[in-house]
């Protein structure tokens, strides 16, 4: 079978991987690896997405060099963060979810909708950086925007020119109805988020689009970009062969995610009070989980030691 290319973007680094299916097994080769270094600006902590895009394109260029038969490209990343666009122009540099500005957003959102109501509608644990809280800090920019793209969808747009929202990552925004898995436009409008900025939803397995001609020329090859579980935890969980009915998982990266996969969301008072979350999984399933401390402190300690070691 043909090869595939995977773009995996984490909060501290990114990589491009070529995968090949041979004899019932998968062979993987990392062909690009690059740092993800956020930048502290006068406006706050922000992502250097153009540096990431350079890493992505360099990795894809190498992928097409060693595997001209690549048949599709998939992209996953961390959740909740986004870019606002007007037409084909990005409005500013996207913020890092750890930026401190979101405290004011939490207060504004909870004045319009209580956490109890939000949990019934979106099923999400309280995290002060969930997308809906971040958007509440963007009042002026929101008026100028005509689309919002989460990070993996932004990279898909840069490669294809198509603006979509893949459901597993969209489920982390707080604006997706946890039951219908469609945009909760009534809640969005109440929170000051216009329906016009919410892109068309797609599911894992759907083709987003072909590479733009100028992108294909630059990369030395062409293949369609296909939606995957673009929230990296969704892709991690679907890869685990959890055949037992009572299987659980621990996905450890910048965060540790501990949970189970369910057919329906769990929206009980106990789930809300213990701050469990219901995030979208592949094939319409739900990832019922809790965030615990991951490797962020270790990663940041190493980054600081390297910076000050001489």
What this model shows, in words?
- The chain has 310 residues and is α+β, with helices and mostly antiparallel strands.
- The chain has a single domain (4-231), classed as ATPase, nucleotide binding domain (Nucleotidyltransferase, domain 5, 2-Layer Sandwich).
- It is 32% helix and 28% strand.
- A four-stranded mixed beta sheet has the order 3-2-1-6. A four-stranded antiparallel beta sheet has the order 14-15-17-16. It has a three-stranded antiparallel beta sheet with strand order 8-7-9.
- Strand 14 (249-252) and strand 15 form a beta hairpin.
- The longest helix is centred in the N-terminal third of the chain and has 18 residues, at 49-66.
- It starts with a strand and ends with a helix.
- The mean pLDDT is 93.
User: Number of helical runs?
Assistant: 12
Can you say what the CATH homologous superfamily is? ATPase, nucleotide binding domain
Based on CA inertia axes, which overall geometry fits? Answer: globular
Determine the N-to-C terminus distance: 49 Å
Strand order of the largest sheet: 3-2-1-6
**Major β-sheet annotation:** 4 strands, mixed
Number of strands: 17
CATH topology: Nucleotidyltransferase, domain 5
Provide a brief overview of the structure.
This protein has 310 residues and is of the alpha+beta class. Helices cover 32% and strands 28% of the residues. The protein has a single domain (4-231), classed as Nucleotidyltransferase, domain 5 (2-Layer Sandwich).
